[in-house]
Amino acid sequence: MDFELSADLKKIQEETRAFVNREIRPLVPEIEKKKKYPIEIVRRMARQGIYRLLIPKEYGGAYETVKALPICVAREELGRGHNFAGASIATQGLGSYPLVLAGSPEIRERFLPKVAAGEIIPSFALTEPEAGSDVGSLRTTAIREGDSYRINGTKCFASNAGIAQYIILFAKTDPSLGTKGISAIVVEAGTPGFKVTKQMEILAVDVVNELQFTDCLVSCQNLLGEEGKGFIIAMQTLDLLRCSVGAHAVGIAQEAFDLALAYAKKRVQFGKPIAQHQAIQMKLANMAVEISCGRLLVYQGALAKDNEQPDVTLKSSMAKYYCTEMAQRVVDQAVQIHGGYGVLMDDFPMERLYREVRAPRIYEGTSEIQQIIIANQFVREKKK
Ligand SMILES: Cc1cc2nc3c(=O)[nH]c(=O)nc-3n(C[C@H](O)[C@H](O)[C@H](O)COP(=O)(O)OP(=O)(O)OC[C@H]3O[C@@H](n4cnc5c(N)ncnc54)[C@H](O)[C@@H]3O)c2cc1C
């Protein structure tokens, strides 16, 4: 078994790290001050070709088929630089992978090359005020009328929806069914009856919106795949991207570790750098071990997806669950190592990491939902 990344993946890692250092880090102070949609990050990521990792070669992407491992390798580096950069590769994927999976040739041709080039920002609207973890209970309806769907309902927490050119809407085409009644439909910005009603304020710089659909008519040609396949499309999209949330968390943890180590080496208390006090060394040791475990789980989950292994859902949930919880612990210890400076809101980056590390434990399925998915794989297995 080879634990080394291939030459191709190392190149992605090194180039993304250099890109983050050169083009993302200098933007961070301004982004944190303004707390506006950081469009400049999107522009720079597009120029760097990062979104091409999400799209098949046929439509301007990097590989013949979309692969999870390159996305994870890049996302770890992006997550180290700034939350929005790490999140941006995922939201671009959440809004494009459903088209890769189930879009008509016309829809793919129309949108995917522009997503690859970063000229289009899509959004993925699954969550509702009354339906978060329990996706099957979503209430938005898309009822067929001739050649159109009439859409009514409310969505929330849809990343990038305020600026998106199109959203992947998950709505019930048959409200009498649970998850089997859900369909995925492309709704373009500006369609009458579709409104972005609110920008929701989030702890870290993340842009999520509330959406309202009122008698919004959308052509049936915008349906992805068949009616009733929306839940499967959503879950397959999450299988691709869930372990990249783990990679993002590993990036945050690695950044926190690097900062804590550097600080511990230079901060002198009781006559020597605190890095030479054993209590601090134990913290650093635990942080380093946990980060390595997390990274290996991410690679395992991503390879399961890329090699089409049947246990991809289990492995990507394990990666997401462990890494996001681990990053919270690591960032907390890094703050502790910084003492009072860890919670300073001036130039010290720890408080930003402390805010950034929180949401990944919630989005794309909370930690509790990941635990249920993981446990069910074993419980169901035993029943056979
Ligand atoms: C920054 C951010 C970005 C997001 N981006 C998107 C996006 O682009 N598109 C989108 O559709 N959504 C998005 N979301 C929404 C996100 O996916 C949901 O918040 C998440 O799935 C949880 O749903 P909820 O908030 O309704 O919590 P709930 O489902 O109400 O859960 C509340 C609590 O109950 C727990 N819980 C629920 N059910 C169970 C159970 N059966 N057993 C044990 N515990 C349970 C949960 O784990 C949680 O702790 C985003 C959220 C955030 C914070």
What does this 3D model show about the protein?
- The protein has 384 residues and is α+β, with helices and mostly antiparallel strands.
- The chain has three domains: 115 residues, Acyl-CoA dehydrogenase/oxidase, N-terminal domain (Butyryl-Coa Dehydrogenase, subunit A, domain 1, Orthogonal Bundle), CATH 1.10.540; 106 residues, Butyryl-CoA Dehydrogenase, subunit A, domain 2 (Beta Barrel); 153 residues, Butyryl-CoA Dehydrogenase, subunit A, domain 3 (Up-down Bundle), CATH 1.20.140.10.
- The chain contains eleven helices and ten strands.
- The strands form three sheets. A four-stranded mixed β-sheet has the order 1-4-5-8.
- A hairpin with a 7-residue loop joins β6 and β7.
- It is globular and about 80 Å long.
- The model has no long low-confidence stretch (mean pLDDT 95).
Task: Write a compact overview of the structure shown.
The chain is built from eleven helices and ten strands.
Helices and strands in order:
Elements: H1 7-24, H2 28-34, H3 39-48, H4 68-81, H5 83-102, H6 105-116, E1 122-125, E2 141-145, E3 148-159, E4 166-172, E5 182-188, E6 194-200, E7 208-219, E8 223-224, H7 230-266, E9 268-269, E10 272-273, H8 278-306, H9 312-337, H10 350-356, H11 367-383
Parallel strand pairs: 1-4
Antiparallel strand pairs: 2-3, 3-7, 4-5, 5-8, 6-7, 9-10
Bound molecules: flavin-adenine dinucleotide.
Backbone CA Rg: 21 Å
Amino- and carboxy-terminal Cα gap: 31 Å
Helix content: 40-55%
What is the ordering of alpha helices and beta strands?
Answer: HHHHHHEEEEEEEEHEEHHHH
- Just give the CATH class of the largest domain: Mainly Alpha
Overall domain count = 3
**Helix segment tally:** 11
Write down the overall geometry. globular
- Give me the CATH superfamily of the largest domain: Butyryl-CoA Dehydrogenase, subunit A, domain 3
Output the strand order for the largest sheet. 1-4-5-8
Oligomer state of the chains in this structure: single chain
Task: Predict the CATH topology of the largest domain.
Answer: Butyryl-CoA Dehydrogenase, subunit A, domain 3
Q: What is the mean predicted local confidence, pLDDT? A: 95
* Spans where pLDDT lies below 50 across 5 or more residues: none
Ligands (ions, cofactors included): flavin-adenine dinucleotide
Which structural class should the secondary elements be placed in? alpha+beta
Number of strands: 10
